[in-house]
Amino acid sequence: MAEAHGSTAAGAAGVGLSKGDTGRGAATGSSVIAGGGTATAQGVLEVEGLSASYGPVKALDGVTLRAEQGRITAVLGANGAGKTTLLRTISGLVRPTAGRVLLNGEDVTRSPVEAMVTKGMSHVPEGRGVIAELTVDENLRVGSLFRGKVGQDEFDRVYDLFPRIKERRTSTAHTLSGGERQMLVIGRALLARPKLLLLDEPSLGLAPRIVAQIFALLRRLVDTEGLSVLLVEQNARSALSVADTGVVLNLGRVVVTDDAHRLAGDEDLRHAYLGF
Ligand SMILES: Nc1ncnc2c1ncn2[C@@H]1O[C@H](COP(=O)(O)OP(=O)(O)OP(=O)(O)O)[C@@H](O)[C@H]1O
Ligand SMILES: [Mg+2]
């Protein structure tokens, strides 16, 4: 079930998360995109009419959305809405039955997963998968093997971003807390300096304070490095507190796309689809 962990998760970390002060002025206020809207910022990711099925189950039904440069786009919806399938289809793990995926304008719809990584897309799946018997450092190094040439400076950068992971670099992964594991898998995904990060339910089961830390870090990367994030969450309240734009999915279809702040203020929509 959708569970809200706190109204200002990102703010609780004590990090400035103001959404209007970091060069994002141009498209703010024109971000209603569903139905051929007027957003002007560059779409790093454009998803057009994407459909996907598992046998007779139609999990995605003509989904259209975009993730813009230097923004966090939250995809929200209840269990079974199609959020995970959307990320898996974008990153090439599930074959779409219709529609297109464009990455920086290039049609990558049927590109293999490895090609997506080299083109700048990194997918952090749900479940925080790590190799339990290996240390934190070994997990990062194994993860880097799938991400092209990764220099030592990239490992140092990940450790700087996640000091807690640095402290635990020689611990075996099975001793990590849920939050530390989540940081490890995000750090692993950042090794290849992706332009677009796909995140599947990073907050699931974590304490509000840890969620706040993780979201604050994402906000910082987006604001300072121009990273683009597509953030899938059932935890709509926290996600909308850090996102620029929200997309609500229901039964495989986009119900609404709007500015995150406006979505959070829409009581009817919140009650109908977002669980808070
Ligand atoms: N491997 C699969 N085989 C068959 N059906 C699947 C499979 N994966 C997902 N589905 C179905 O597709 C639909 C969308 O599932 P999906 O996992 O994308 O939803 P979700 O929004 O990520 O849900 P949750 O919030 O529970 O993670 C659901 O009806 C689900 O039962
Ligand atoms: Mg899911």
UniProtKB/TrEMBL annotation:
It comes from Geodermatophilus amargosae. PROSITE patterns: ABC_TRANSPORTER_1, ABC_TRANSPORTER_2. This is Branched-chain amino acid transport system ATP-binding protein. The keyword Membrane does not apply. Belongs to the ABC transporter superfamily. Gene3D superfamilies: P-loop containing nucleotide triphosphate hydrolases. One of its GO terms (molecular function) is branched-chain amino acid transmembrane transporter activity. Transmembrane segments: none annotated. Pfam families: ABC_tran (PF00005). PANTHER family: HIGH-AFFINITY BRANCHED-CHAIN AMINO ACID TRANSPORT ATP-BINDING PROTEIN LIVF.
